[in-house]
């Protein structure tokens, strides 16, 4: 298609073409004004004989999408002479241009959380209408014009497809045959882009997930850095890099939610409906845990961050010292679980030293934080509410003094994990199990609170399959009631943590919860 404005008439079907807003492979978009009504729209223009008649496809999807939040209204469409046109709502800048124009290496977390909430919600709507977008990218999401500038709109349905057959009302079938790729190089899912799979709802969500990670990664996802591949060899290299990129590497240093979402998408079955609301809430909570308001409104430019001095680590260390000191003085009776007080004193010293070293560091939070920075219950940077609760529980388990207390803490752990739809054992969950294991195994070992990272690549743990996991967890839940002492329970907790790993899946299964409940009961019985 010729995209040169000279070739396109100034007037198409009573729409007076003004400036060009953008152009793509198959056509151009202009700001246009209706010569009689004065209505201003975005006019998407394409030659009727274009080899890729996306306007024709796109026109077919608009009726099903009308009325949805963030879905542009189609005001008119048709063919005049050589030109196929769509008159749609005039919108604002695309996320791509906002991001580029900001000149920043990454987008701020607050904006990314809002984009996540809104984009997932757009997908939920489109999918509810039986339509896949199939070309999720920053250039295909725009903000609205005032008064809708806080709403993100989905545009460009030229690659969209119905995944619910309009006659049978059934999901389209999967196929093993490799397909030609439709989508975009940067964000199309690994399954669709690199493995030639049939796209379904999970792939739209994976594209959103990759887009979010891209926005938070300095210089973006690695395979986007060399521009669009110009040869098929370059494209093969890009696909390989994308296919081999592990979620934990892509999301290093980012809040857990991003890695969890990517893994979640990749685990979904072909026909499975994503739990959109769960993820919207996850990103809302992530934002809130950083002091941002719960709203998903996209405010651009982002509200200015303010530098605030967090509660000094020195005073946090003093609190810790006090707790540990009290513990040291505690009369533990016969059920001692903390015995080696020299370790306690050492840990207090270490915590104080760390605090002094870090005491003049600042954290940056949003100006909307309402001065909540002094509230102990606000999780530290990049910590979700779930992670925060688990971290607090880990501290408590480390200072529990008898089996009854440990039992209650296990019940609380179960509650936290069950209240969370993903039920995935994140690193803070592992830290809890580590601390519990230490408490049960050797009462004289002092457990450092807040141990938040689980060592990676330690042995066979990474290679247990999900099959092994199911077997081991079934055995654990069967045998936990027969354990005779804490040491046996410790081994069971260790086994449970060991088989719940990345290869086997970190989701706590039904049997897993039964085991934990049995553990809580047995701890009470062994008092
Ligand atoms: N309704 C609109 N209002 C304002 N600008 C728009 C609108 N629709 C599209 N644009 C601008 O035009 C650009 C191209 O739009 P769109 O992706 O719909 O066209 P396309 O021809 O399908 O492009 P591509 O081939 O790159 O997918 C967008 O990135 C956006 O900047």
Let me know the number of strands: 12
**Lateral strand order in the biggest sheet:** 1-2-3-4-6-5
Global geometry: elongated
Query: Overall pLDDT, averaged?
Result: 84
Distance between the termini: 79 Å
The hetero molecules present are: adenosine-5'-triphosphate
Structural category: alpha+beta
> In which range does the helix fraction lie?
40-55%
Binned strand content: 5-15%
Compute the number of helices.
17
Cα-atom Rg, whole angstroms? Answer: 28 Å
- Element order, helices and strands? EEEEHEEHHEEEEHHHHHHEHHEHHHHHH
Model regions low in confidence, pLDDT < 50 over at least 5 residues: 1-5, 332-342, 358-376, 446-462
The biggest beta sheet reads: 6 strands, antiparallel
Provide a descriptive summary of the structure in words.
The structure is a single chain. By secondary structure, the chain is an alpha+beta fold. Helices cover 43% and strands 11% of the residues. The chain has 17 helices and twelve strands. It has helices at 54-65, 95-102, 109-128, 190-195, 201-216, 232-244, 247-250, 256-267, 276-289, 313-329, 341-358, 385-398, 403-418, 427-441, 466-479, 486-499, 510-525, and strands at 11-12, 15-23, 28-34, 40-47, 74-80, 83-88, 131-132, 141-143, 152-154, 161-162, 305-308, 363-366. The strands form four sheets. The chain has a six-stranded antiparallel β-sheet with strand order 1-2-3-4-6-5, with helices on one face. Strand 2 (15-23) and strand 3 (28-34) form a beta hairpin. Helix 5 runs antiparallel to helix 8, helix 12 (385-398) runs parallel beside helix 14 and helix 13 runs antiparallel to helix 17. The relative contact order is 0.07. Mean pLDDT is 84; it is low at 1-5, 332-342, 358-376 and 446-462. Residues 21-22, 24-27, 29, 42, 54, 72, 88-91, 94, 139-140, 142, 155-156, 158 line the site of adenosine-5'-triphosphate.
């Amino acid at each position: 298609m010729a995209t040169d404005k000279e070739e396109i008439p100034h007037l198409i079907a009573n729409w007076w073409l003004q400036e060009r807003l953008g152009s793509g492979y198959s056509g151009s978009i202009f700001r246009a004004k209706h010569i009689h009504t004065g209505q201003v729209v975005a006019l998407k223009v394409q030659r009727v004989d274009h080899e890729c008649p996306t306007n024709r496809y796109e026109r077919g999807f608009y009726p099903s999408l009308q009325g949805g939040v963030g879905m542009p209204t189609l005001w008119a469409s048709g063919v005049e002479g050589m030109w196929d046109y769509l008159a749609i709502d005039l919108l604002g800048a695309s996320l791509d241009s906002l991001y580029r124009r900001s000149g920043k290496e990454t987008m701020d977390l607050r904006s990314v959380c809002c984009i996540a909430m809104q984009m997932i919600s757009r997908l939920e709507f489109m999918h509810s209408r039986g339509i896949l977008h199939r070309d999720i990218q920053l250039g295909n999401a725009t903000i609205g014009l005032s008064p809708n500038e806080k709403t993100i709109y989905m545009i460009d349905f030229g690659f969209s497809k119905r995944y619910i057959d309009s006659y049978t009302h059934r999901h389209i079938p999967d196929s093993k045959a490799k397909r030609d790729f439709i989508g975009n190089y940067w964000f199309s899912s690994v399954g669709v882009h690199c493995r030639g799979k049939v796209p379904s709802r999970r792939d739209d969500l994976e594209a959103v997930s990759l887009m979010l990670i891209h926005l938070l990664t300095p210089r973006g996802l690695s395979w986007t850095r060399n521009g669009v591949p110009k040869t098929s060899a370059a494209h093969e290299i890009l696909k390989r890099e994308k296919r081999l990129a592990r979620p934990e590497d892509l999301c290093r240093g980012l809040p857990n939610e991003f890695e969890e979402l990517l893994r979640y998408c990749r685990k979904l079955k072909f026909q499975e409906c994503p739990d959109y609301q769960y993820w919207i809430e996850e990103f809302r909570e992530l934002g809130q845990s950083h002091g941002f308001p719960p709203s998903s409104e996209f405010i651009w430019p982002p509200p200015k961050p303010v530098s605030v001095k967090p509660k000094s680590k020195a005073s946090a260390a003093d609190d810790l010292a006090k707790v540990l000191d009290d513990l040291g003085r505690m009369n533990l009776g016969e059920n001692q679980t903390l015995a080696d007080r020299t370790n306690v004193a050492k840990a207090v010293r270490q915590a104080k030293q760390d605090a002094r070293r870090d005491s003049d560091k600042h954290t940056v939070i949003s100006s909307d934080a309402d001065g909540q920075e002094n509230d102990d219950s606000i999780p530290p940077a990049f910590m979700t509410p779930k992670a925060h609760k688990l971290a607090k529980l880990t501290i408590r388990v480390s200072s529990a003094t008898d089996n009854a207390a440990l039992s209650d803490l296990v019940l609380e752990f179960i509650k936290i994990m069950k209240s969370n739809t993903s039920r995935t054992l994140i690193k803070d969950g592992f830290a809890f199990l580590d601390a519990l294991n230490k408490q049960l195994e050797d009462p004289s070992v002092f457990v450092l609170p807040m141990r938040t990272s689980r060592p990676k690549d330690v042995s066979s743990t990474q290679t247990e399959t999900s099959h092994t996991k199911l077997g081991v967890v079934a055995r654990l839940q069967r045998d936990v009631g027969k354990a005779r002492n804490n040491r046996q329970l410790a081994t069971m907790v260790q086994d449970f943590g060991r088989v719940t790993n990345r290869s086997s899946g970190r989701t706590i299964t039904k049997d897993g919860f039964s085991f934990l409940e049995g553990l809580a009961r047995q701890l009470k019985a062994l008092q």
